[in-house]
Design a protein that fits this description.
alpha+beta, Glutaredoxin, Glycosyltransferase, 4 domains, 5-stranded mixed beta sheet, 4-stranded mixed beta sheet, 25 helices, 47% helix
Length: 692
């Protein structure tokens, strides 16, 4: 009987492998001790539950008794969920890059019994093909080298460990003025002017880069850069990367048109998609057709979250790409399948509107999309035939669904909470009720803060089935800081906002205590982490913003909201600590550059109202005027008249004029004249900013 020890794992991904004939071990000191005792190298396999190629390698190799027998004889085999242990993934992915390989998942690394890498790759086929050696050939070659050529192994090990431990470049001093703008405009030049997104294929949403380009467009007045961001959202929203039947965005598109997705749906992608849709909707001059499209996509995507991604009051991590052993099977349609649900006329109209044909656009079937919609007629709207789509969604529930990874990840939930709060706030300003969205955000926030922290306030990274994965990571605290600050900024109650701000401050203190790097910035792993060979320390964004970028932004916003310059100094130290990295790689450090933009252009917009939660037309008009600037560097706060700001705060002594809602714009310690007319907000901001 195989000694597979994954049955007690928390991670749904590890549990997918508990019945493999491979003698898998979870990561930990016991597995390393076993390798030392047996003088065997370690085979480390890192993946995640929704990963298509992870499933392919599992079916081809890890479920094959012959392959498993070789693995068990020659190696101690460790399986890791990259979402549960991003620190381990980052360490060994960095090592793979140092070997000159591009990286990806599954990540297959070979380690010494001390956990130190000496060689690796990604997916290996069961037998040689596509220029890749077969997996058994790889295993036997690594074993021979380990037994017979230790000097070569040692040379590789030393080189990789030197690379992992190498001192980072020293700070480059002060960052160049307007670097965020020049970098954002440079990145805008990489965008595809036909299809949106970065030119070429595959196409990823690149949310961090899009945010920086958006900011650069606002600062520079570049219509081209702003159009690049809006076009990207429009093409993603109409492409096959978007699920037109059930809502939600897939992880990326394999082609340059956003037509064919890699079908897994990740919580973090959809969180950032929601946030970017809301920001684009805030634009005062957005066309009616795009306004309709983005509103519908927001409704549909939040609807998908509510229908398919709730794990209690919080959000699950992902949906698989595969079902019944086939990638995308759950999502694609043929005309015959549509005809079984709709009558003849409705079927013909729907298939024409959504590019569903007998020849198909994906492996003999069709991915619904709106990339080439009819120019007129009933199929010309942003989301035509709602009754037909509802019927198809209902019919789709009878298919075997993709597996869901039920992990509640603190960092991904933090991004989702913030996005929902922003989207609900925008709809509220337009008089459209989406109160359930804010309730979703607050309930998820309460779950993470109440059920994923211990008595000392330490935040766990993951919750699944009542079990926690500890310790948490810097990304968890930084993302939950973002969530708390956003909930405060979108609240019309100062007492409620103060509770969120107090939480954000507490999370920031914990970040400083457990993750601070002596040169500025934060390690990914806590100082309590004792099972890794090195604490990862990087400013680079991945598909989500880097923890340091999130923290730099959150500390800046807190500084303005609380009138505490020390918090701004913390943010400045992060930026200074990574200055050389930022200058050297503006694409990879886009979230830090967005924080730099906030540092240089932040405006605190404070609405003082006669009554808390004032819904008078004057108050609503002032709120809308601020929102329609669509500027991420504007920091919002609402207080009722008589609120006592500290004497050091620029709002000290400011009141509602003549009992009317009054807006103050504050920057660098000074505030504008009181504003009571929405028409004055834009010009006042332009004039006020130009003086500073």
């Amino acid at each position: 009987m195989t000694d597979n020890r994954l049955a007690g794992a928390t991670s749904p991904y590890l549990l997918q492998h508990k019945d493999n004939p491979v003698a898998w071990r979870p990561w930990g000191p016991e597995a390393l001790a076993e390798a030392r005792a047996a003088d065997k190298p370690i085979l480390l396999s890192v993946g995640y539950a929704a990963c298509h190629w992870c499933h392919v390698m599992a079916h081809e190799s890890f479920e094959d008794p012959d392959v498993a027998a070789v693995m068990n004889r020659l190696f101690v085999n460790i399986k890791v969920d990259r979402e549960e242990r991003p620190d381990i993934d980052q360490i060994y992915m960095t090592a793979l890059h140092a070997l000159g390989q591009q990286g990806g998942w599954p990540l297959t690394m070979f380690l010494t019994s001390e956990g130190e890498p000496f060689w690796g790759g990604t997916y290996f086929p069961r037998t040689s093909r596509w220029g890749r050696p077969g997996f058994i050939e790889v295993l036997e070659a690594v074993d021979r080298a380990y037994r017979m050529d230790r000097s070569r192994i040692e040379t590789n090990r030393k080189a990789l460990m030197t690379h992992l431990a190498a001192a980072r470049p020293q700070a480059a001093g002060a960052l160049p003025p307007d670097l965020a703008v020049t970098a954002g405009l440079r990145l805008a030049g990489l965008y595809d002017t036909t299809h949106g997104g970065i030119r070429g294929a595959p196409k990823f949403p690149q949310a961090c880069v899009s945010e920086l380009v958006w900011r650069a467009a606002l600062r520079s007045g570049s219509a081209e850069a702003l159009d690049a961001c809006v076009l990207t959202l429009e093409r993603m929203s109409n492409g096959g990367i978007y699920d037109h039947v059930g809502g939600g965005l897939a992880r990326y598109s394999v082609d340059e048109r956003w037509l064919v997705p890699h079908f897994e749906k990740m919580l973090y992608d959809n969180a950032q998609y929601i946030a970017h849709l809301a920001r684009a909707l805030a634009l005062a001059d957005l066309s009616p057709s795009l306004t309709e499209l983005f509103r519908i996509r927001l409704d549909e995507t939040v609807g998908w979250l509510q229908r398919e991604m709730m794990n209690g009051p919080a959000f699950a991590a992902s949906l698989d790409a595969d079902s019944e052993g086939e990638e995308g099977r759950f999502y694609v349609w043929t005309p015959d399948q549509v005809a079984r649900v709709l009558d003849r006329d409705a079927c013909l109209a729907f298939c024409q509107a959504y590019d569903i044909s007998a020849c198909g656009n994906f492996e003999g079937a069709s991915i619904p999309n709106r990339l080439s919609p009819p120019r007129a007629g009933p199929g010309a709207g942003a989301a035509p035939y709602p009754a037909a789509r509802a019927a198809l969604l209902n019919a789709r529930q009878n298919r075997v669904p993709p597996a869901r990874d039920d992990k509640v990840l603190a960092d991904w939930n933090g991004l989702t909470i913030a996005a929902l709060a922003e989207a609900e706030y925008l709809f509220r300003l337009e008089g459209v009720s989406r109160e359930s969205w804010r309730r979703l955000a607050i309930d998820a926030y309460g779950f993470v803060m109440d059920h994923m922290r211990d008595n000392e306030g330490r935040l766990a990274h993951a919750w699944c089935g009542g079990r926690l994965t500890r310790p948490g990571f810097a990304s968890d605290l930084a993302a939950m800081m973002k969530a708390a600050v956003t909930l405060a900024e979108t609240s019309w109650s100062m007492s409620e906002a103060n509770r969120f701000l107090a939480d954000a401050l507490d999370l920031g203190r914990r970040l400083d205590r457990d993750f601070a790097h002596e040169g500025g910035g934060y390690y990914l792993a806590s100082r309590e982490a004792n099972d890794i060979i090195i604490r990862p320390f990087s400013p680079m964004d991945e598909a989500v913003p880097n923890a340091n970028g999130l923290a730099a932004e959150a500390f800046l916003r807190l500084s303005h909201l609380l009138g505490d310059d020390r918090l701004a100094e913390t943010s400045e130290a992060i930026l200074a600590g990574f200055a050389a990295d930022i200058v050297g790689n503006v694409f990879g450090t886009a979230s830090l550059l967005s924080a730099l933009d906030t540092a240089e252009n932040a405006v605190l917009a404070v609405l003082v109202t006669p009554l808390e939660g004032d819904r008078s037309e004057c108050a609503m008009a002032l709120r809308r005027a601020v929102a329609r600037l669509a500027d991420p560097a504007i920091i919002r706060l609402e207080v009722s008249d008589g609120h006592d700001f500290p004497a050091s705060h620029p709002l000290h002594g400011k009141t509602a004029r003549a009992g009317r809602p009054t807006l103050y714009l504050c920057r660098r310690g000074a505030c504008s004249a009181p504003l009571t007319s929405a028409a004055d907000v834009g010009p006042a901001l332009t004039h006020f900013a130009s003086r500073h």
